[in-house]
Amino acid sequence: MATTTATQQAAPQGTQPGPLKRVLLIVLIAVLAAGAAGGGVWFFMSRHAASAPAASAPPPPAVPVYYALEPMTVNLQSDDGETHYLRIGLTLKLDSQATQDALAAHMPEIRSRLLLALSNKHPADLAPLDGKRALATELATLIAQPSDSRGTAARVEDVLFTEFVVQ
Fold first, then answer.
1. pLDDT tens, 53-75?
2. Where exactly are the transmembrane stretches of this chain (predicted)?
3. For residue 95, which of 86, 87, 103 has the smallest C-alpha distance?
4. Are residues 75 and 132 in the same domain?
5. pTM of the model
6. Closest Cα to residue 155, out of 57, 48, 24, 62?
7. Would you say 166 and 127 are in contact if contact means Cβ atoms under 8 Å apart?
8. Same-domain check for residues 38 and 116
């Protein structure tokens, strides 16, 4: 009888894990692995993202300097015998304050060039929009010319009309 009781006794339950414990262990390992992988990806991506904008960010564009000239009144060329006048106000769009200072130092020469060029125009040439655009381009070229032979040309980005009256 002793032999029958020994065979009928069950093996202790702690030696073999049940199917629920195995599933929990596998899920726990998978969650830990996914967390470690996610943390590694976040670490490397945040390091890369922090260094990328500093290297690829373009410098901010330079703030333009606007320089208003005193309005000018000029007699225009006329073929019909009548006297025509042009009253014009100009603002220059420049690249820097240094350019403005250089132009201000030579303003009497620049105004003289502008007055001579404007007095050679016909009212019919200045009436259409294309005529005004061509005049702005011509005036920018005249203003940018150096005042002396060893000087450098000024950088005039644009000539803006603030007043334009033809009579």
1. 555 667 777 788 899 999 999 99
2. 23-44
3. 103
4. yes
5. 0.61
6. 62
7. yes
8. no
